[in-house]
Amino acid sequence: MIRKSLLAFFVTAMMATPVLASSGSSSKPLAGTYPIILSHGLFGWGENSGGIISIVNYWGGTDDYLRSQGATVYAPAKTAANSNEVRAQELKAAILTYAAATNYSGKFHILGHSQGGLDSRYMVSNLGLSSRVATLTTLNTPHYGSPIADIIKTVLPGWIQPFVASIVETLVKIVYGGTNQQNALAALSSLTKEGLASFNSYTPNRTGVKYFSYGSFITIPDLIQHPLMGILHPACAAGGLFQGQGATNDGLVPLSSQKWGTWKGGPSYGILTTGVDHLQVSNTLRSGSFWYDVEGFYMNMASNMKANQ
């Protein structure tokens, strides 16, 4: 009887050991995290976009990296150029369609880059989705406006703005494809200091949703590390000083304008890196991978989401 009991014990132990080892080795840091929605910015695109632009990944592979760490990630497309309100409607429709297709009835985490943070805020505050969102994280979002948007509106005379907008919209349709109605002027107005002051007045934070913000800035506007944003940086700095937002910026958005909810800071980088600009922080076209630890930064943001769900 004793021998049979001992034999049974050893057989059970031998069978259980590999199962436990496998379970431990297959555990991923983001397993169990609510699905993460990536909301792209102005002139951005998603995983279901068409046109020439769909050849490359807006998020530079960070979506796939988060998936490899156990997260469920969805990066929907919205109109490339339109108001916060219109893009919010599109984001809501995309999320609900995704939830229905995957038979998911729980909550989401949202990460919005640039204008993607604004349309996400509007969706949560005004389109009835606050009960489906656990955290809303914004990344280099112009919560209080972008001086570049104000400069463009000031420099371009009113009579020529519709003409320039039509050219931009035509180019966007060619590059992005699709049938969405572009509205460059509405997008521009949505990003000015005045436009954001009005937007914030009717887009309050919702109870039950945790708001976090991350951001970055350029330390030296050299054109090697920042070929596009380095050109815009001086104008953004001058405009930021004029508007009382400070000179520190990422090429498009003052650092002071990036802060909303609980401020969490930005990515870390070596002494040879002259800051992280507006495109590098989202790793668009993989522009940030060479200059800072993109995967580590996105893991930090996703881990914060998981800790607050």
Describe the structure.
The chain has one domain (36-307): Rossmann fold (3-Layer(aba) Sandwich), CATH 3.40.50.1820. 42% of the residues lie in helices and 8% in strands. It has ten helices and six strands. The protein has helices at residues 2-25, 62-68, 84-101, 115-126, 147-155, 161-176, 184-190, 193-201, 229-242, 294-307, and strands at residues 36-39, 73-74, 108-113, 133-139, 210-214, 262-263. The protein has a six-stranded parallel beta sheet with strand order 2-1-3-4-5-6, sandwiched between helices. α3 (84-101) packs across α4 (115-126) and α5 (147-155) packs across α9 (229-242). The chain is globular.
How would the blueprint of this fold be written?
Blueprint: H1 2-25, E1 36-39, H2 62-68, E2 73-74, H3 84-101, E3 108-113, H4 115-126, E4 133-139, H5 147-155, H6 161-176, H7 184-190, H8 193-201, E5 210-214, H9 229-242, E6 262-263, H10 294-307
Parallel strand pairs: 1-2, 1-3, 3-4, 4-5, 5-6
Signal peptide: 1-21
Keywords: Signal
Domain AB hydrolase-1: 34-167
